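Repro:
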Amino acid sequence: MGRTTRRPRRRCPTCTPEPKLTEAHWQRRVTDFATLRGWLVYYPLISRGSAPGWPDLTLTRAGRLIFAELKIDTGRLTRDQQAWLDKLAACPGVIAHVWRPADCPTSWLP
């Protein structure tokens, strides 16, 4: 009797676990999504010389201003990052958040 080989099962792309996500990949996903939704996005290419802890992204659209610190699921904020987010969030009309891959982008960028 001949040996039969099984064809690998096709997996649903939604159910397939993601490879390890880096902060650089996460930032790219967020900036691409925001741009597609009509947000103007700024991020420094090189943070050397900038104030320590300044948020990764600045976004604006239709009179809204968002500062976002991007972290992968295991990433932790530094004291400087937390201080900037607290001070920026205290400004009227400004939104300051930490965004992680587990968060849903449609909730923060409608």
